[in-house]
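Example record

The entry below shows one chain as it appears in the dataset: sequence first, then structure tokens.
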Amino acid sequence: MKDNMISRRRFLEGMAIGTGVMFLASCAPAATPAGSSAAPAAGGAAAPGAGGVTLTWWDYMGDESSANGVAVMEQVKKYNDSHPGITVERTFIPFGDLKQKLLQGAAAGQLPDVAIIDNPDHSSFASLGVLADITDPIAAWGKGGDYFPGPWDSTIYQGKNYGIPDNSNCLVQWYNKAFTEPAGIEPPKNWDELRAAAAALTEGQRFGIAMSGVKTEGFGIAMSGVKTEEGAFQWLPFLWMTGEDLATLDSDGGRAALQLWVDLVQNGYMSPGILNWTQGDVKDQFVNGLAAMMVNGPWQIPVLKSDAPDLAWDVAVLPAEKQGASILGGENMAIIKSTQHFDEAWNLLIWRQEPENLKEYLVRAGKLPSLATLATDAAWTTDPVIKVFMDQLKVAKPRNYGPKYPEISNAVQEMMQAAISGQKPVDVAVVEAQAKITPLLPA
């Protein structure tokens, strides 16, 4: 088998990541490059234009209806306009589909030249042989040391570099002043205050008058518990707040973190709908006055400013328990190993990291910089909202759980779904999750 193809055994192992079920390539959703009706050619290279090179690009960053998607498309356009002879064709693939699409494409020999990958999945794809080793180009470039350690480390697998950080983010708590100010509620600083605030704000919404002047059936707080990485992403900080980690999930702290969410739902302070809500859905609940508080990331800032300019909101760091915590989110950009245009793909990656280009993209998309030398820019130091996110990043923990992380995350998601829905007691759900997770953790 060619070197740029992963073995059948490794492909089947990869297909099992996060699902336990193998999907046939023919079942994958069709995706069309933005601005083009042509599908990517086998081997990752679309048919080049006359005398030029076409680079294919896959990501899940959104379409023209989202600030994130617009930011990506504008950056692609800027690159195309400034690089005659090279055309980047971008394909948007929904977050939940991109992993399977990459695995299916690897087996079929139909992959893009570059891809944006969720940073906890990076080592998994590197271990499967999907990504190009760019250790030597990085060394020659000489700028690897300019990045924050957490994001940079997420691009490393077995001592080699397989990508460049695209952006960082973390979670904070958001609150709607139209509810919190009349109730005299300050952002909760610990779990006891969180429970009390969620209870008071739920009562205030249901029996008081909401922003619109109409009585609502709203809740005190909203978070995402959906059975995807978004759900695990939102719950893990609560585990870390107890001082525990996935290796010690079956502990008093692990059970307390899960019980907190279960109690919020069972007591009526958080909707059971969270089991189906993405972080975008959580934002919609908040914007529509159906949740007085929410947990969400900085990518929602441009959305709220655009879609709800009159909404009075603010942010604060997440409430602590034994310690403060948040989660390091973000994406990396990688070159696919099978590309026929490595040099052009590498030049695209480092062009995106030029401070002027990177800042323009990050600000429009509502993202935080992984590039430490850019983090001191006024764009991230003078805005009080952004400052909260930058402060929260100080205790944001990466998901450095090795190449089996997608399977680990799936076990966390199943645990959340079972306990929050009431299908299993918290202690049973935690014990079962620990049994799945422990063998998957790095030695």
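Notes for this example: The CA atoms of residues 92 and 260 lie 36 Å apart. Residues 1-50, 207-215 have pLDDT under 50 and may be disordered.
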